[in-house]
Amino acid sequence: MTILRMFLLTCSVLCTGGTWTWAQLSSTPVDSLLDSEGLPRFIRSVHVDRSDVFDPRHQDWFFGAAVLNALHVMTREYIVTDELLFHPGDEVDPDQLLETERVLRTSRLFSSVRVQPVLVGEDSVDIHVQTQDQWSLRPDLLFGTGGGVTNIGLRVSELNLFGTGTNVMVQGLYRTENSIGWEGAVQISQRRLFRTQLDATLRVQATRFRTDQLLEIGQPYRNLTTPWAFSLRADNAFGSDFAYRPTGTELLPFHQREIRGWLSQAYGSPDRLFMSASVRLSDVQRAIPESRQAFDNSGHVLVGFGSIRQEFARSAFLDGYETEDVMEGGWGAVTIGRVFASAPGGQQMWYVGGTGEQSWFPSDNLYLFGSVSAGSGFAQGAQARYTYLEVQGLSHWRLSDHVVLAARVRTQTSWNWNAYRQLVLDFESGLRGYNANALAGDNRAVANVEWRWFPQWRWWVLGFSAAAFYDVGTVWNQGDPLHRTRLRSAIGLGFRLHNLKASGGDAIFRFDFAYNLEDNSFSGLIFSTNQLFSAFARHQYRAPDLLGYDLDVR
Q: Which domain holds residue 26?
C-alpha cells in the first residue's frame, strides 16, 4: 500500500522560511571537555530548555504561531529528563552527551535536539538540553496510488498525547488492491509506560478479508548502556491470505495464534556482547492444506550470541532535511536451538543460523554497507529443512553538498522449503513501474540506484528535493536456475516534499514517475511517504529468530 500523507493542518501554516537557530550560548564543543591540564570537568547543573513547535527565539515564528502552539501540548519535562544519561556532580563524558542527544532524536517527539556543555569555571560545566517539539496532532488525508492500486482515507494520529509520549492512531482507508475495500486500524503505544523502562503497544487492524490483533510489552535496548532487555508479544490473526497466481488472486483462509518472547543480557562498552534466549509457540489452522507455511504449529527455543559496534556521525541531506545519525560499525550473531511441535501438524528439528554485517567509510564522502544472513533447520538424519540466505548491500556517495548517489541491493533465496512461500516484486518492494502483486515467486532479488538532489530550498515549513532512479529486479521459484530468470527494470524521475516540522518517514512525501523498460510505457504517478530506501543502515540488536518465514500474503 502506498500513501501520500497530506497534512491538512500544516497546509494553513504561514511562517517565514529559512532555518532557525537556538538562543546563543557561550558553549564548548562536546569533544573539548578537558581543561588545559587534562583534568576531567564536572557537571555543575543540568538545564532543560523546551520550546514549542513555534518559538519566538527562532526564525520560524510568525503571526499565527501562538494560535497553533495553543493547539499543541508541549512535551513534559520528565519525558526529556528520563532519557538523560548524566546528572549534576558527574564527570563529563562526551559519549554520554552525544548518546543522550541521539536517544532524544529517535523518540520522534522533537524536530530538533541539542545537548550542549557551557563552561562555568576551570573544572565545571553546565549542560543545556534544548528540544523543539514537532507538530504531533496529525489529521491526515491518506491518498496513494501506484501499480494500478489506489487508496484513499483519513487518519488521525497524536504522536505525543498531552505531552506524555503516548501515541494514539485511528485510521479508515479504502483500498482498491484485491478489492479489499475499507480497512480500519486503531493503535495506542506508550514509551516508558508509567515512567518505567517498559514500552507497550496495542494494535487492531481489520478488513473484510483479514483481522490482525497485537499486544506487545517489553524493555528495549534504549541506549548504548542499557544492561538488559526483554519483550513479550501475543498475535491473533484470522481471515484469508492472498495467493498471487498467474491465473489470478486466490484466497487462503486461516486462523493463527502466536506467543513469543525473548530475554537478553548485554556486556561491555562501547563494543557490546549479547547473550539472548527466545521462545515461540504457534497454533495455526489453514483451510487449504497446500497453503501450510514453514514452522506452522511449531514452537522454538533458541539461544543467541551476538556483538555490536556502533560509531556515529551527524549528517543531513542524505534522506531528508533533518539531522540524522549515520552509523558505522558492525553486528554479528549466531543462533542455535530446537524447533518442536506445539500443535498438531508441527515439525521437529534443530536450527542453526547466523548474521554478519559491516559498514564503514572508506573516505569522508563514501559509505558502504554489507550484510549476510543464513539459517537452516536439520531434521532427523541431518536432512536440511527451510534453508534461507539473504544478502544485502547499501552505499551512498556524496558528490557535493547538494547531490547524493545512493544504491542498494537485496536478494532472498530459499532451498529445501517444502511449504507455501511467496515474495512479491512490485513498486512497494522496489520495482517501480510495475503493477501491484503482478510478479511473485519463492525467491526475490532487487536493486535500486537513486541520484538525489537537495537544493536546500525552503518555503514556509516545507523543503524540496528531486531524484532520478533506476530499478531492476526478478523473482523465481525453487529449482529454477538463476541465470534463466527474467530481469525487469524501470527508470524514472521524482520529487519529494519534506515537512520541516516532522521527523523520520512522516517528514517525506514522495512523488515518482516511472517508465517501464520492458513494456516501454509510463506506469503513472506513484504517491508514497518516505524514501524508497535509506542511504545508510542501522546496526541494531536483534533477538534470536528463525529466518525467512515472513511472506508477502496480505
A: 4-133
β pairing state of 403-415 and 443-453: antiparallel
CATH number of the domain residue 343 falls in: 2.40.160
Q: Which of 130, 122, 137 is nearest to 69 (CA)?
A: 137
> Does pLDDT of 1 surpass 80?
no
Q: How many CB atoms lie within 10 A of CB 371?
A: 19
Contact 230, 105 (CB under 8 A): no
Report the CATH number at residue 114.
3.10.20.310
* Nearest partner of 387 among 416, 425, 348, 423, judged by Cα: 416
90, 106, 133 - which closes a domain: 133
**Number of Cβ within a 10 Å radius of residue 101:** 23
**400-424 in b/e burial notation, b at 16+ Cβ within 10 A?**
eeeebbbbbbbbbbbeebebbbbbb
Query: Are both 457 and 330 inside the same structural domain?
Result: yes
Q: Is there a domain that residue 540 lies in?
A: no
Domain ends where: 133, 149, 174?
Answer: 133
What is the per-residue pLDDT across 5-33, written as a single tens digit (0 to 9) for each?
333 333 333 232 333 333 334 445 555 55
Phi then psi for residue 67, to 5 deg, are -65, -45
